[in-house]
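Listing 4. Sequential folding, example run.
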Amino acid sequence: PGDQEAGELGLAAVPGRQAAFRQALEAAVHYARAVGCPRIHVMAGRVPLGTDRAAVAGEMETTFIENLRYAADLLAQEDMIGLLEPINSRITDPRYYLNTPQQAAAILEKVGRPNLKLQLDLFHCQIMDGNLSSNLEKYFPLIGHIQIAQVPGRHEPDSPGELNFPYIFELLESLGYAGYVGCEYAPKGDTLEGLGWLRSYWESRGLQHGGTSKEAK
């Protein structure tokens, strides 16, 4: 994430921070290797304070592409995947550079490396673009990780909000998604109590707690 006390939230697209980005990436690879995690979120970073987004967009994209190619080469040596996550600029972070799946897909195409993927957080995607079913289908070949949270409160999937998660989960299954779904939400209360939505979902699908079929038991 860079120097968070100085207001940074990632370095990959920030001009002039290339050396710090490479140093941070090497540290991230070290940690990921130690814990056996094959995916690293390569954070783009924020539009510098006092600058207009449109005025620096070209320079930031050039920096981002250069750093991503470097990252892809380094991660390939470790058999790891780099992930790009668009973060909404309407609620969460107005200055974050990478803010839509369309922008991320365009950059991934320009970088052209198979070990870089899209980390699609449905909370951010819904706020910036909506159209989740179509976006999941369109960008599915690029997706390397999915994250969820209800909109707009960013709480559990069964909390009041805009998204129908049972439908979304079935859509992901029908598309053949076999990866993890990260619970990127803030529990309204206790963490374990907040996982009640998952137990209810398993039961609605005829599954035991843990996701195994009752018939198999």
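-- end of first protein; second protein begins --
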Amino acid sequence: RCHHCSPAMLDVPFLPFCAFLGALGLLCVAMVGTWCQHWRGGFSLDGSSRTFNWHPVLMVTGLVVLYGAAALVYRIPNTWSGPKLPWKVLHGSLALGAFILTVLGLEAVFCFHNSQGTPNMYSLHSWMGLATVLLFSCQWAAGFGVFLLPWAPTWLRALYKPIHVFFGSTILMLSVASCVSGINEKLFFSLKNGTMAYKLLPAEAVFANTLGLLILIFGVLVVAALARPNWKRPDSDSPDSRQVQDALGG
């Protein structure tokens, strides 16, 4: 009896889970902003290190938090009935907003590197980050063409949907990995001459490492929500699925 009760006891309703996830995402954004403001000197557009500080803030906000919100749109119970188009537009708009913030974040780091004479694209973090952004752009363009434009055939939507879902989770985890590696790289570069060494774990290192862990937890929870079967939109109720079944003679 305990064996059958334990899953029900551990069951969490979606909306409270989503509220917790939203609070966690806002905490990540607040912490990365606090880190850059308190320890890294704040923000500006003069090409200095304060210009670079826009990079982590925009990347965490766009590539992780806003992208995670876009990924969870179809898990909201209100999306399970009625027309699907408004939710498609919301999903695509959130993803587009995340992409715009990401591009601005890239612009900030390239501007800083160019003004300081620092080479671009030499670290593993930069390679992984740029690959994530390129994959993200392909994902958004393909999703827009297949799911939002009216002339895409239903068989193509049915074929591409699992691919879109798979790469959605993959891009999110790549985004998390890029952000965490970027935080670690920044600490290695910053906590050396004139400051307490990173290996001595100063307050900034503790704060930034905690931020990295929270970003990782956020990403894992989003992927877990996407993988949970009872939080998925019932395919049998969706107009797209009925059209596919009719086309296939189901």
